[in-house]
Amino acid sequence: MVRAYFYDNIADVDPREPHIKPDSADIPLSELAKLGVLYWRHDVSSESAYLPQVDAICKERNYSSRDVIIVSPDKLPNYEEKIKIFFDEHLHEDEEIRFILEGSGYFDVRNKQDEWIRIHLDAGDMIILPAGIYHRFVSDSNNYIKAMRLFKENPNWIALSRTKPETEQVPTRAEYLSSIQDAA
Ligand SMILES: CSCCC(=O)/C(O)=C/O
Ligand SMILES: [Fe+2]
C-alpha cells in the first residue's frame, strides 16, 4: 500500500532504507496530486482483474504499448549501471507510468520547495509522474520489484539528469512548473 513522506536526506545511510524524516506527518495523495503525481490501486491477484483497468488508462492517455521490468540483481541486465541511472535525479519529457506487479520500491519526487518526498509502492500500486518533475527510483531493502511500464507510440523518456545545466532549460520543465503553480 502506498505511503508518502518527507525524505530525511541522511547521505551516509543506504538509500534502500526507508529514510523517514523524524517528526513529519505522512503526505496525503491529495498533496501528491498538486504536484501532478497521480495514483491508482488495482487488484493484482490475476491478470483478468487488472488488465481491463490498465487498458482503460492506456486508451484514455494514448498509451499504445507496454512492457515489464524486473529490477533485481539477478534479473536486470547491467543491474549496477541501471540502478545508478534510476537513482540519479532526473526528469523526462513524457510522463512516467509504473504499475507495480510484484515487490516494492521507492520513487522520490521533488515538491515545490525542492524537498524530496519519498513514495513507497508495492504490488497493486500504479503511479504517474508528470513530464518535467525531478525524481529518482531506488529499490527498498527487499531488492526486488516487478513493474509494468506503459508507453506512447514514440516515447521520449530519456532520463535528463539534473546534474546537467541544460536540463533545467528544456521546455517541459517550464511547462511543468507552470502547471503546478496554481495548485494551492
Ligand atoms: C520500477 S521501474 C524502474 C525505475 C524506472 O523505470 C524509472 O524510469 C525511474 O525513473
Ligand atoms: Fe524516471
From TrEMBL:
Enzyme class, UniProt record, top EC level: oxidoreductase
GO process terms (BP): L-methionine salvage from methylthioadenosine
Any GO CC annotation of this UniProt entry: nucleus
Binding site for Ni(2+): 90, 92, 96, 135
Domain of life, per lineage: Eukaryota
Stated family: Belongs to the acireductone dioxygenase (ARD) family.
Function: Catalyzes 2 different reactions between oxygen and the acireductone 1,2-dihydroxy-3-keto-5-methylthiopentene (DHK-MTPene) depending upon the metal bound in the active site. Fe-containing acireductone dioxygenase (Fe-ARD) produces formate and 2-keto-4-methylthiobutyrate (KMTB), the alpha-ketoacid precursor of methionine in the methionine recycle pathway. Ni-containing acireductone dioxygenase (Ni-ARD) produces methylthiopropionate, carbon monoxide and formate, and does not lie on the methionine recycle pathway.
Name of the protein this chain belongs to: Acireductone dioxygenase
Organism the protein comes from: Catenaria anguillulae PL171
